[in-house]
Amino acid sequence: MFCSLRTVRRQKKLVFTAFMFLIEELGRLTEKRLCLDKILLQCVLQSRTLSGADAINALRPFYFAVHPDFFGQHPKEREVNENSLKRLNGYLENLQKPGFRSFKPTQLTFYVREREPNSSNVQESFSASGFRAVSFTLHTRDLLSTVLDILNSCSLSTEHVQSLNVSSQPHKEAKSTVNRPIKWDKTYYSFTGFKDPEEELEQAQRVETTLLSWLDYNEASAVKKLKKSLPLRKELERLKIELSHELQLSDIRWQRSWGIAHRCSQLHSLGRLVQQRPEVLENVKGRTVVFTDRSGMSAAGHIMLGTMDVHHHWTKIFERLPNYYKLQKRLLLLEDRISQLLGGIQVIYIEELQPLLTLEEYFELLNSFYNKLRDSRLPFHPRSLRGLQMILESDRYAPSLHEFGHFMIPTVCDPAALQWFIFAKAQEARENLKRKEEMMITEKELISTSTERFSLDRLYKEPSVSSAQMIDCCKRLLEESLPYLQGMHLCVSHFYSVLQDGDLCIPWNWKN
């Protein structure tokens, strides 16, 4: 009996020792697990960290594909990319602000330089000009997701993002381990009356921005910027009037949508040149000066002053004006010869629709086309196409008819195909030209009526907005009550934006 009791005690002691050993091992395992979790958490956090500099590096292929400097011969597309980049940069800056939570879905449109097209969920249209239009909406709340969305939307590779020690996979892991919010059942929100954050996000993504809601949200910001810009606007107007009067210029323009301060600086620079070298500006009387990206004379006969050039370059351009005027006379003669070969059709150059060409570039374009026509000897009856218009384009391969009635003729077009196309479309072209005149009158009247109705300081449109789109926009605006617009500068564009000087940009096809 005593022996069996001692055996039981020994067994209990062994069980207790084993039990304590297990507890000790369990403690060590728990400590290791906690250590591993801590290391994993640190890795996840590091993998999710993306600085502003990292974002810029990751977006380099995108910037290379959409940078406005590569669209020098396509002013409409260049302007769209410039404005979209401004809005994208604002979105990226907000993402980096600590505590910033007020994100609204932002729709952007870019013209992307052409590459091999891939299938994509975004709306894409390909053009024959070497680029395609891509539209997408950003509603992400961190830099990494935003960068990946942009690259994927433009069908650009995301492999290089891995080299930044960032990947999209840890993003999902981080959601499940770091700062994980409590996911309540739907009945919780129904019972308590609290708002379901997931449902709110889905609704925000589904609902399109309306004109009234956007104006209500952005009015204060636009008014503040506009008031700040008023002294500079007056200064700009004063400088423009003084220089136009002193040099007897027809007009002073800007090719791109630079800010008011930038424009004032350019006029001050021209004013200094007038004071220092008045003799070189003797030949500018009656001309239009355009501030743009390069210096010379444009195909339309305007004096171009490159904003990156110094006075020395401007001085050379003014000294060459007599030679430019001689070349311009030769160019007009060349247009007349082409017109005679094509039955009296008028050769025109439309600044808003064509690439910005220098006088020399346009002369070479006309000369090449003229030589091709002369050798082909097309049998057009003299003056049979009088009243019709055409423009020459170097980036197309097939002729087409514009909605405004002018023919768009590629310089490489086959003469026989050109003859057939013009004969087949001549009547339609005359009808379109007549409709164009009516539309321009209607557009002018609607702009005047809208400006007066809403007490706007200015109502204008971007060059890429057609007359038909502007007419539709103004007609629908006049059906609304919009007290937000009083005293504002309103630009009809393809997207919503508040410019740096307070101008309000709205898409022509706004929703309400």
UniProtKB/TrEMBL annotation:
InterPro entries: DUF4460 (IPR028031), DUF4461 (IPR027989), TCAIM (IPR027986)
GO cellular component, one term: mitochondrion
Domain DUF4460: 46-156
Domain DUF4461 residue range list: 209-511
Protein name (record): T cell activation inhibitor, mitochondrial
